[in-house]
């Protein structure tokens, strides 16, 4: 959050990166997935023009941060593939507001505790 405070007019993407502790490529992956709901790693990698392993790591991080969900889809010929879904923007907003409110509360407590 410190880095965010140094920016006068931060973009949504930058706020997202600071609040969730993610990298810019993970934010790009989230935003693209939001437009391509239900994509597989291969589909996203092709669309983002990135290596599958990099996209897979980004998706794993986003799943850990509860920004992305994963569902297993059975294939007709046998086997399965995972499809990924970005959570609704309203949920992202709520998670971000909660994180910022929690951080602000902590800062206010530190200010109130200060006694020179």
UniProtKB/TrEMBL annotation:
<feature type="domain" description="Transcription regulator TrmB N-terminal">
    <location>
        <begin position="17"/>
        <end position="88"/>
    </location>
</feature>
<dbReference type="Pfam" id="PF01978">
    <property type="entry name" value="TrmB"/>
</dbReference>
<protein>
    <submittedName>
        <fullName>MarR family transcriptional regulator</fullName>
    </submittedName>
</protein>
<dbReference type="InterPro" id="IPR036390">
    <property type="entry name" value="WH_DNA-bd_sf"/>
</dbReference>
<dbReference type="InterPro" id="IPR036388">
    <property type="entry name" value="WH-like_DNA-bd_sf"/>
</dbReference>
<dbReference type="InterPro" id="IPR002831">
    <property type="entry name" value="Tscrpt_reg_TrmB_N"/>
</dbReference>
